[in-house]
Each structure stands twice: as C-alpha cells, then as structure tokens.
Design goal:
heterodimer, A: about 475 residues, alpha/beta, Aspartate Aminotransferase, domain 1, Aspartate Aminotransferase, domain 2, 4-stranded antiparallel β-sheet, 17 strands, about 35% helix, B: about 525 residues, 7-stranded mixed β-sheet, 3-stranded antiparallel β-sheet, 12 strands, globular, binds pyridoxal-5'-phosphate
Chain lengths: ~475, ~525
Amino acid sequence: MMSPGAVAQTCDHRAANGEGEHRVGHYVPHTDDELSAMLAFCGLESLDDLYAHIPDAVRLVGGLDMVDGLAETDVMARLRAMAGRNSAAAEDLVSFAGFGAYDHELPTAVPALMMRSEFVTSYTPYQPELSQGVLQALFEYQTMVASLFGLEIANASLYDGASAAVEGLNLAAAATKRTTVWVSEGIHPNVREVIRTLTGPRLDVRIAPVLNGITAWPDDLEEPAALLVGYPNALGCLEDVPAAAQVAHDAGALLVAYADPVAAGVLRSVGSQGADVAVGEGQPFGTPLGLGGPYLGLFACRQASWVRRWLPGRLVGETVDNQDRRSYVLTLSTREQHIRRETASSNVCTNQTLIAVAAAIHLSWLGPDGLRELATRCVRGAHYARKQLFRIPGVEPSVSSRTLYEFPLRLERPVPDVLDRLAEEGYLGGVDLTPDYPDLGNTMLVAVTETRTRDQIDGFSAALEKALA
Amino acid sequence: MSGRTPPETSAPEILRGPSGGRATSAPVAGDGTEPSIFELSVAGRRAWSFGATDVPEVDLTSAVGAEHLADAPPMLPEVSERDLVAHMTRLSSRNYSVDHGAYPLGSCTMKYNPKLCDTATTLPGFAAAHPAQPTDQIQGWMELLVGLEDFLCSVTGMHAATLQPAAGAAGELTGLLLMRAWHSARGRQRSKVLIPDSAHGTNPASVTLGGFDVVEVPSDARGLVDLDALRDLVDDDVAGLMLTNPNTLGLFERDIREIAAVLHDAGSLLYYDGANLNAILGVVRPGDMGFDIVHLNLHKTFAVPHGGGGPGAGPVAVSERLAPFLPGPRPEFDAQSGRFEWATPECSIGRVHGWHGNALALARSYAYILANGGDGLRRVADAAVLNARYLQERLRDVFDFPYDEPCMHEFVASAASLKSDCDVRAMDVAKRFIDEGFHPPTMYFPLIVDEALMVEPTETESPQTVEAMAVAFRRIVEEANDDGGAAARSAPRSTPVGRVDEVAAAKKLRLRWTPDDDPGNPTHSKE
Ligand SMILES: Cc1ncc(COP(=O)(O)O)c(C=O)c1O
C-alpha cells in the first residue's frame, strides 16, 4: 500500500490543473503509479490504448467542450446563488398553491432517516439476502398504500401520479382486452396530457366533461376498458365514486380512481366505493415540493384474476429463507420486462423506492389518528379560507359542488395579474386554471393545508382584496 | 475449466492492500428477524404533532358530507417516534449499499455518489419551489435546467434534450414516441423497431408500448451486432434500431458507422440506450456515432444515488431534426427579455411527466457535472474502463469469456464450466461473493450468455479494491474446485437471512401485512 505522501507526489493531475486547489475527477482515486501498474498488467501503454479498437472516425478530438471541474465549495457557491434566484413557495412566500403538489409539514424524522446511506445508495433489491431492509420497508409501504385506498394489493411505487394513471389504464386495457378509455375532465390537465402522450399509439382516450365540477359520463361509452375519475378531482370537488363505479361496471369496464392520499384521512376509501384500481400522487407524504419531482406514483388494486399477469411495477412478497425465517423478496417477476420483454405488462424498471420509503416513514409517524387530524386540519383551513375569500367583492366560487381542502375561485381580473400582485405582498395565491378550464372564467385554484395559520389566511384575503381593488 | 487451478496472484505489488475495504466488518450479520412495523403498533400510541394555527373548528360531517365521510381512518401503525426511528434504522442495517463498499452490479453503474450532490438538493430555494409557480419566481431553477441540458448535449453531441423522463425506461418510451412522430411528420407509418438479442428487457417492453413490433437482431461471434443480418432485416417498414454502445456485453460496437449508414439509408433512426455512457465520457459521443435519439440514465452515469430502486432520471437528447418533437414545456432562455420561460415545441409529442421531471435528481447531476468538468468526466471513463479491463484480465483463467473483445467499463463472464465441473452456477458464485464482503455482480443478463456474471467495478473503486474483488472471485472458484461447490451452493452465510424461497413467494402471494391470526399468513407464528 502507498503512503498518503506518495499519492500526493505522484499525482501530476493536481499540478497540471494549476493552483493545486483541487484535482479534476475528485471522485477517481487512482494515482498515476497505480494507473501505470494496471495498464502494464493489461499490456497497454497509455490510457488512450484502452480505446484503440474504437474507430478514429467517431473519436472525440480535443476533449469535451465544457467547463473545468470545480472544488465542492465552489460548486455549492454557484448552486446557492442559483437557488437564491428562486422565490420558493414553501420558503420565501406564504403559499396557497396545490393542484397536485402540496406544502405539508415534514416530520424531522423523515429527512433524518432519509440520510441513511443504506436506503439512499442501494440498488433495486435483486439480491434479497443483502436487501432485507429495503424489501421490508417496501412491504410495509405496500400495506399502508393498500390500506389508504381500501384495496388488497399495492405495488412498490411508480414514477408519479401521472405515470400511475397511465399504468392503471394500461392494466385495464389488458385485463378487458379493450382499447377505449374515458378520462374525466376533472383529472389534472397535465395527467391527461401524459396519458394522451404515452398511450396514444395504443389506446383511444376520450374525455368526459365536468359540469359544475362533477364528471358527466356520456350515455354511450362504446365498450370502454376503464373510466378514470378523481377523488377529489383536480378542481377540488368530491366526485360521486359509487355512481362512476356503477357506470363503469355496467359497461364491463374497470373504475380507476385518481385518489388524494391525504384526503383518505377523512374520506371513505375509493376501494370501498367501488374502484377496482386506485392511483395517486404520494408527494404529500415525506417529499418536498422540489419543482415537481421526484414524487411518488401510488398504485393499488383489488385482488383479481388479472393481477398475476398484468399488475405493473415491482412487488415485494413475504416468504421464508432456507432456515424458515420470515424474509422478503421481489415477486411475480414473470410479469416484468426483464423476463417477459416485449409482452411485459409495463416497461417500468427503476421506480421511486426511496420516496416510497419516505412515505412509509411519514405515514407511520402519523398513524391513523394523525392522518385523520392532518386531513381534518386541511378541511378546517379551507372552510375558514372559503368564508374569508368569498366575502371579497369580485371573488366568487367557480363551482357550487362540494370541495374538500382545495377550491376554485372566479376573479374579476385575469389571474396572472392577481398572482403578480399577491407575490408583491409575499403570497403565492394559487394556480391559474384559466388556460386549462376556460369555461370557468378567470379561475384561481386555492389549496389550504395544515401549514396555514388563521393569520396567514386573513392576511391572504386582505392581500387578495387589495389586488382586486 | 477442469484442471485449471488459479495460479498464484500475479497482481502488481502496488495493487495489493486493504485500501477501500470490504463490508465483512459491517454489523449486518445479526440473525434475528425484524418485526413488522405493524407488530410494533400499540393502539393509542403516537408520534405526531401539528403546529398551532388558530383556525376555528368545523363540524366534519357537514364539511365533508355524510356520504363521503369515513367512519374511521385507514389502518396504519401506531408507534412512538423513537420506535419508528429504531425500526427504520434496524431495517437500514439489514441492507447493503454503495456507501458500504463495492457494488459491481453490471449495467447499473453503482459508483460512489458524492455527498455534495445530496447537499445541493437540500437548498430551500430548490427544495421548496412549487412546480406551478410563475416563471419569474423560479428563474434560478430554470437556469439550472437549461444549464444541465447544455451539459448533457455537450457530453452526447446532441442538439437539444428533454429532462422530463423519470428513468431510463421512461426515456426509452419517450424516444420511441419521438421516432413515431418523426416518421408521421414524413407522412409514413413504420411498424418495426429492431433491437439486438443482447438488449435490456426495458427496450422490447418500451417498443411495444410505443406501438411498434419488436424484431430481434442477432449478435455475431464477436458479441457485436451481426451486420449482414442487420442488412437483411432493414427495410422501409423499420422505424429504427435501439442500441446500447458499449453494448450489454461491455463491448464497443465498432461497426457503428456502418450500422448507422444501413439505418439512415433506409430512412430509419438510430436510438442510443445510454445505460453505458459512463464508459465513453469524453472519448466518443453518440451524436458523432450517428445516433438520432439518446436517453441517459442520470442514476448511472451522473451520480444520482439509486435509492434502493429509484428515483432516477432519464433525459432524452436528440439531433436537430428531432428537436421540434420534444415534450413540452421546455425551459428556454429568451434573449430578448433576458429571462427563462417555458416553451412547447411546435410538433411536440406532449408531456411525458406530470411536471418537469425528477427535478431534485436533475440538480444532483448538475452538481456532479460542475464538480467534474469536462476533464474530470474523461477521467471517469478512463478509470471505469481500466478497472474493468484489469479485473477481466485477472479472471481470464478462472471464468469462461465467450466473447473475446476488449471490454469497456464492464465485462460478462460465464460460469458455464464451473457449472459443469462442480455444479456451481452463476447464482452460487454471486451468493458466495456476498460472504467475501461485496455486492454480487448482475446475474443471468444479458440473456445470450450462459450462466452470465456481469461485472462493473466503476471508476470510484480504488485499484486495491478491484484487486480484492479479483482475489475474492478467484478464491470462490478455487474453493469450488476443492469442495465440489458445497460452500458456494450454501452461501451466503454472513447475511441476516439465507437464500430466500422465491418460488414460495410467488406461489402463495403475501403482498401486505395482515394480523397474526390471518390464515393467509402462516409465517407470522414462526417468530
Ligand atoms: C442497458 C439498460 N437499458 C435500460 C435500462 C433501464 O433503465 P431504468 O431502470 O432507469 O428504467 C437499464 C437499467 O436497468 C439498463 O441497464
């Protein structure tokens, strides 16, 4: 072994890079003597010889046209400056923005445990003997997600709510051998767009309109594979899930519910109301807003004959080891791409395991009563906010249907102007729905979570009144 | 293999030593089982608390509506924070990771992920930004995204990129939809996509989702795309070819220019699966090889930690002629206003992610690239390839190597002889490797190699660690020759559980915890 001194002496990259402050490729440990010894062992003279078999015609001449490497303090300084050019919703402003991404209290236990290298820096648990920790955490996560939705089976995560919705529709199409799917207009417009993009070559996606915030399913559904309904939907409204289930089942289709997992603290589960598949966005549990990712695609379904063949994504099952000890392992992999290739139920491989583990920790911290309390606090805040905001001249509800903790307001002025004025007062007022729901007029969607105090809501309504004056 | 005994080590003196170390010292060897969090639950126990808000109470039944209101909340564990933290910490101790030691899992590029990149994601200006904020509130974020796109285009030699795809497979589907849109814009529909028989499973699965039929291209005796077979397969119904280069055997497709010409002459596109980009950083670029569409796995090459299975990020970079089809909205710098704005290309295929991709993962890669720079990235490739080449040389006489081309950042060995000689399969070698204190290589992939062991040391392992892995592999083979494979077949012995019954797991499905008295859960009473 070499002494540290010898390493420094033989490392002429440090000198070549000037100043001696740092060396390029901080994370490559090889000293020059070591490189030489390894090359000699391989019968090579220079590093370039490693690529001798690559045709010159495609080789890059002169190296990458990029900046030189920086020391880590210099990288952090740049990033801090960039981060400083954001007015982040949950840091610099008082936020009433939701629309699928929510500012919730994050228990300190979550980020603390999320620093465990074993969770952060392991691969997919292909080797169960070395991966019982992640496998068991995912098994517990699956149990919690199934419970939130009142269904029997949950997978080990998908990319985000949108990808979970796509997979739900793909599952329904495979299970029913049909290709038409009906998506409620109350599903988030981004999710609808992702569905159209990703299923375009295979499925016929029809949109069922919302009237006053509630989906009006057409009479003739033309042999549908699935209906997709939000609960609450993207406008914050509580849809009639049993009615949607009835319509779906009468037509021989599956009901896929895009369900809010926080609302599950007070609402009847979508499974108990007739949904065959539940999908959703798990971001509220354990994940910061982070400009929209990485988030967490929740996916659950009832036990059915199509599960073994068509359920998408990784699944962790409980089993025993060779000494009969309880163990966990990835299971039903015969559905998956690495076995079934072009006939796989889905192409997903890497998923969002770390976020799923964070969600399981957050949900365990809450427990049933804490989840109920969280949802109740959101409902309470929204109730109070509605009362305050609808008093303001020039503000009225965009819909009269029942909402839970997020609701659309129609404003007298264009929403972008109002958002600008609110930002000057330190508020992120909500999200402009006008481009996506033009029929609703100048509509701003406002979400109230447990993080908002009475003073903040009062201040917000005063600022909104001023902005509209 | 028979008669071959591993010769005394011929490793250079300088490479022998404990630098880097191995995980045989890690305290993961307890042989008890960890109860389920649900078994630690006690009714009425709690960890939660919420801040004072002073918001007036409401009557839930009237606020929610009797028809919507649940009688009781969902079943979740009721634990103290102390018990929760202890449980999760014990679970973490039952899990190997890159931070423990070497993880030469081929195709997965399990390199060390610098802590700098973790820290970058915790900056509140990034972490606390809402994805639907007006653009003037997120200029710093948009600058980062545009900067990362520039970096990725420089590294790949491409024109523009979307950062939306959440992982490699999502990038593949995005790329195939781009392929589809590009052909449609030329007024034609093509139904077939070619992939080599060595391809990763996500490739054919994505092809189907993209609405194409898979046609397999055979590999030749070198382990490379069989050019003659390719020529026979390409016709005017072929939309494109998906290729990994270096391929999944760790071999560089040296005929890439000819391959590109065959495809392009037929009006087809060439797709680059970037899972193996680590091998060629700063050496050769997909754009210069003739690729039209490139997906990258930022969780492989650009140091996004794998998180026990994700999240990653799978940006897709394209040549100029495909840029108008990229998913929107894209962050762009508007020189006139001096600001960053969202813009959707004219012929966009549409969004492929609910928001802007796995943004915080993208921030990690940005930090990683800044720290390395162009010169540092080249060093990454050099050390990654040299480590693999050295390790392969050290193992030449103990495993079979069906393809005798110089390897790039990884190589695929075969345990076929070991299997016929002493009934030790690739799986057994992998499990015995655990007892040596390392994570096993990838097993049984690619499918075209019998008893495949796919080894990718990565550049961040020191030469001594690489040498220690060589010695470990040699010891396993030597031991198998001595004991007829008994030790390997019963490995691992140093882990919290022994070999796990996968067949039983799939036969009698138990996918969630249920109480002890549930007849569906016979294993619970064993505790
Ligand atoms: C060669 C190859 N292609 C594609 C993929 C898929 O990438 P991801 O797991 O990020 O979806 C992988 C990773 O497992 C791979 O190794």
